Amino acid sequence: MKQLQAVLLASALAFGCTSALAQDKAPAPPTTVVATLDNELSHLEKGLLGLAEAMPEDKYSFKPTQGKFDGVLDFAGQVKHLAGGIAMYAGAIQGEKPAAEPTSLKTKAELVQYLKDSLASAHKALASLNDQNMFTPIPPPFGKNPTTRFALAVAMVSHPNDHYGQMVEYLRMNGVVPPGSK
């Protein structure tokens, strides 16, 4: 009798665990171009903010010195450049004139907030895309050739990956394990 009870209990537990796992399905993949871009931006946002927050403030002035690193940005410069670029792309997508990159930002807290604000404007810019305006030629935020909001959106979610890689190296050179590697 005890064996039967044990088998029934094990079966019930197995069924319960299977049911619980079935309810924790991964979210459905995005089904539109805009949703896909916004999903990529969300992943990028998590990674970039993780790096910016992981670097100790006293290391924000770090830049490599051994080897051919003349003229590279320090870590603070990487964060500011990223935030400024994202804000420029987001503004152009929404038809706004690019704002000048602020020069007064110095502290880690100020730079992280600038990055957060830029990423929020990027989400807003992506939400403004639709079938009617996505491929309409618009003036470029830089250069001379017309572009499209879609092209700017793709650049906005892809180009920062170059800087993400550089920032990962800066953290590692300072003995900090990047959040994405934990």
Features:
2 strands, globular, 182 residues, mainly alpha, Four Helix Bundle (Hemerythrin (Met), subunit A), 2% strand, disordered N terminus
Look at the helices and sheets and give the structural class.
mainly alpha
End-to-end separation in angstroms reads: 48 Å
Kindly state the mean pLDDT as a whole number? 85
The appropriate CATH architecture is Up-down Bundle
What is CATH's topology name? Four Helix Bundle (Hemerythrin (Met), subunit A)
H-E string: HHHHEEHH
Beta fraction:
under 5%
Q: List the domain count as a whole number.
A: 1
Percentage of helical residues? 55-70%
Low-confidence stretches: 1-21
Q: What is the strand arrangement across the widest sheet?
A: 1-2
Summary, kept brief:
This protein has 182 residues and is mainly alpha-helical.
